[in-house]
Specification:
With 377 residues, this protein is mostly beta strands. Helices cover 3% and strands 36% of the residues. The protein contains two helices and 22 strands. The strands form four sheets. Strands 4, 5, 6, 7, 8, 9, 10, 11, 12, 13 and 22 form an eleven-stranded mixed beta sheet that branches. Strand 4 and strand 5 form a beta hairpin. It binds fe (ii) ion. Fe (ii) ion binds next to strand 17. The site of fe (ii) ion (FE2) has 5 residues, from strand 17.
Amino acid sequence: MKNWISFPRAEGVASRQAHADLPPGTFERELSKEGFFGPATHMHHAHPPTGWTTWDGPLRPRAFDLTKLTRAAASPWDATAVLGNASVALRFWRAGGAMDHLVRNGDGDELVFVHAGAGELYCDYGHLSFRAGDYIVLPRGTMWRVECHEPVAALLIEATGSSFLLPERGLVGAHAIFDPAVLDVPRIDDAFTAQQGDSTWRVVIKRRGRLSTVTYPFNPLDAVGWHGTLAPVRLNVADIRPLMSHRYHLPPSAHTTFVADRFVVCTFAPRPFETDPGALKVPFFHNNDDYDEVIFYHAGDFFSRDNIKPGMVTFHPCGFTHGPHPKALQAALKPKRPATDEVAVMVDTRDALDVGTLPDGIEWTGYVDSWKGESGR
Ligand SMILES: [Fe+2]
């Protein structure tokens, strides 16, 4: 337990609770530590905190359109590095057809988020079908390959040196958000046994970012059975039943899906807007000052972001305030529709992320100016 220099104080005109009944005409900003779990203050501003006019220097909000990354790669190890640090690597992989080799990640667990396409995964543990909206957790060291029925686009999230865990569910209990019973595992089925045999197979192993190849005179995915507590799992976003409150805009941490060392993965799934007249209906302005924030937009209409479409990524390094875009801000108290249909994957990292070397035209360089507008100033 940390002994924070922290105790509640109030100055000037302030609301009594966060995200509700704001002083008239004000914009709320949350300044918080520990990714919304540490000491926090809610400040009431006369202007939106994103009302900047110019921005100089290396720190800036950035956006990337990964739909323009059209290069397919036969191996996930050739996927495009988008963002990363010592604890996490985010890569975007386009695959097609059947992999002619197996891969094994010796650097950490891999979380595959299937953005588009469908196919079959074969791994040490058996056979698992996948489709868009699936998360697949592959424990470190698992040998695997995919056969795609249709072109696949996937976000690969590597927990470098650590493991993906489920978050604490605390007051809401073990079955909230999603019941662990929906986590599917690979099966030793007819499709799995049909791909076994004595043809030559290569296993391309990644360790410390370097590749080694081991060749077998048979398919090493030759298990006839297994038992234990370790296995890949599949979770589709359609099985996520998000927490919400009709009276309180919950912070992103309420949507945590997986945790690993020094980062978390959250899923924004379709949910109704808050209905309490005084409650905020859009994300509050905030500086999440201990975390870098990444959002990958998968499907739907992203209610807090203007000009963002599926397949894009936004990157908000810590050190500046962000929040809803101007059009969303107009709906802060009166949304035009009863629910959001967005599906997005958020990766919040405790340590600073580096942007990979991306081809020209992938970055939306005007993103820093996207908060400008009548109501965003
Ligand atoms: Fe944020």
